[in-house]
Write a structure and sequence with these properties.
The chain is α+β, with helices and mostly antiparallel strands and 536 residues long. The protein is built from 17 helices and 18 strands.
Length: 536
Amino acid sequence: MKYSVASSMSAYIFLLLFSFSWPITSSQSHESFLQCLSLHSSNSSSISKLIYTPNNPSYFSVLNFSIQNPRFSSPFTPKPLVIVTPLQPSHVQAAVNCTRKHSLQIRVRSGGHDYEGLSYISDVPFVILDLINLRSIAVDEEKSTLWVEAGATVGEVYYRIAEKSTTLGFPAGICPTMGVGGHFSGGGYGTMLRKYGLAADNIVDARLVDVEGNLVDRKSMGEDLFWAIRGGGGVSFGVVLAWKIKLVPVPSTVAVFTITRNLEQNATKLVHQWMQVADKFHEDLFIRLILQAANSNEDGKKTIQVSFNSLFLGGVDRLLPLMEKSFPELGLRKEDCTEMSWIKSTLYFNGQNGQPLESLLDRTLQSKLSFKAKSDFVQKPISEKELEGIWKLLYEEEVGRGMLIISPYGGKMSKILESETPFPHRAGNIGVIQYLIYWKEEGNVTKSEMHKNWIRRLHSYMTPYVSKKPRAAYLNYRDLDIGTNRGPSTNYEQARIWGVKYFKSNFDRLVHVKTMGDPTNFFWNEQSIPPLPVRG
């Protein structure tokens, strides 16, 4: 369906002046906003406990707790005028109404995993609506459904499911600290995507506060808006408060394995072979690749290490014949595999194998390094010679800092139409590539730019070997390099530059939904869906 750098000192001074300008220019709006919140609350003393301004001693701890990328936590990163931490829907409604009334930007944060920090930074005076207190989860085992508030994490969802059942699961992401508000609304995939598709494919209802401050569900928001928030990024359209999701059956026992090979062990040939078969595996089988430089056995030399990281929805006895048939080159043996419950596999994939299940409830990352990411979709096997070009680039960065993670498609992903949800990356893709570079943030702008330029060169090298017209990208691996809006007045043509990369032909329908629901573009950020101009 169609809808038609300047020295470092100069930069320092600019940032310093900029960071202190907001309290001066926005003090009136700031105070008026706080008064508005009190007026919209039945208990003003209660809501005051949920508001943090820079004068509050807890302001910075609340702000920094959910900043998952330290490159956005420097003293010169723009800070919010106010942080609101709602306890109930009416608090969210008041925040939306008051920010709109007083012309403030609103940023919505559930877990703080936006790759470009758009859920907690802005270049104009802004308020953070931090949903960390909205994280209740209600599991209906009999109906295999679950209501989860947007501030809950993926790990909390998994844990609450396991409390009720050993044979139910959900096909969301691997990192347990991601907030479901953003993760689900951008698509959300994990180790069961080949069996059950995306998290967004398994959402059956939602609650949202719209631009008018109304609390709506699927029935009252309408099917167009419900379609848009399941893969189109909810923050373009409102504040998602909760999702109702359909749980999926999982066997009581699953098998996992991680086999590591280096160049001396034919890693290049194995990667090339994987690309020929990964999307054709049985849908119960998921094998992703993790490619990075590693120290070799020879002093002072590096090699490339490839990890074949797998989940199989079944036991080892059934897995081994499948592997012998579809990927014998890997040489999988019974002793390479471990059987466990599905819930324990979620810890395994997060590098927490053997840790107590309560680890899933921890909202903080095990370690926080600055990072930059990019994405691509691979649609034809990359030759061994072309892979060697990737190896050369990986050698340029510190061991373990730069990497590619390639997750396979096929199975259920090939059976869902591109237009079913805004997430269009379905049939025809071997898999999705996530490029990552990590570094320790030390306030060195030159060093940070060096790392970011490295990943840009890697991404540029990959141009001939990935999707084209458009060169597609994944919204949850947000990348401002591919294009940005120029403030709330961004027009359709400007936004389409990046929009078609994330959404392909679905971008036009998203623009239509935005125009109908938020014609003045209140809910905007650097990569939000724009409305069409109001005629008149």
